[in-house]
C-alpha cells in the first residue's frame, strides 16, 4: 500500500500539487459573514463594497449574510459588529447650576450604521467607543451644568438625557455611528459635609413648602367660610324681609332656646305672664 502511494505521488505529483493549490485558492476566495456582523470589503486599501449592511426595517435572514466571495491577496474583509454596543463613562464630578457637585456614572448605547465611514474615520468599533467616551463626558457635563440638583430628581431629568443623546449622536455620526440611548446609572453627592448639608437644605425646603401649602389652605378655608356666611346672611335678610312676623317669631324661639334649654343650669327666671318677652307663648301675631 505504501509503495502504491509513493508510486502514485511520483507519477501524479504535478497534478496533486495543482489540486492542492486550487483548493487553497478556492478556500481563500470564500469567507462567511454572520448575521450579527457587517463586513467592508477593502480592495487595495480602499473600501469596495459592504456585505450585510445594517438596515432598520430588514427582516432577520434577509440582509445578505452568508458566504461571500473575494479576491485573495487583493481584497481584505473588515468585520464590524452589527449589534447595539455600549460605551461606559468613567465616574466623574459634575457641578450643577446651583453649584452642587455630583458624582455621575453614565453609559451610552450605539450601533454602526455607516460601516464605510466608520472604517475610514476610526478603523475599528473599539476606536469608535474610545472617541465617543470623552465626548459623552463633555456633553453630559455641559447639559447637567445647566440644571439644578433638584431638577435631576424630577421629570426634567428625562429632557436632559434627551439633549445629551442628541448632542452625542451629532458627534457619533462623524464616525458612522448612531447613538440610541444615554442613561445615568448613578448621580450622587460626594460623601461627607456636602452630602449632609444638601440633605439639610432639602429638608428645610420641603418644610417651607409644606408650611406654604398649609397657609394657603387656611387662607382658602377662611375665604370659603366668609363667603358662605355672607351668602347665609343675605339669604336670611331676604327671607326675613319678606315676612317680618316670622322673623320676630324665629328670633323669639332662638332666645327661648338659649334661655330655657341650657343643660345643667339651675338658674330660675320669674316673669309676669303679661311680660312682652313671653308674648309668643300667647300666640300673639
TrEMBL record:
InterPro entries: Band_7, Band_7/SPFH_dom_sf, HflC. CDD domains: SPFH_HflC. Residues 28-202 form the Band domain. It comes from the Bacteria. One of its GO terms (biological process) is proteolysis. The chain crosses the membrane at residues 14-34. Pfam families: Band_7 (PF01145). The keyword Cell wall biogenesis/degradation does not apply. It is found in: Membrane. GO terms for molecular function: peptidase activity. HflC and HflK could regulate a protease. Belongs to the band 7/mec-2 family. HflC subfamily. This is Protein HflC. It comes from Novosphingobium fuchskuhlense.
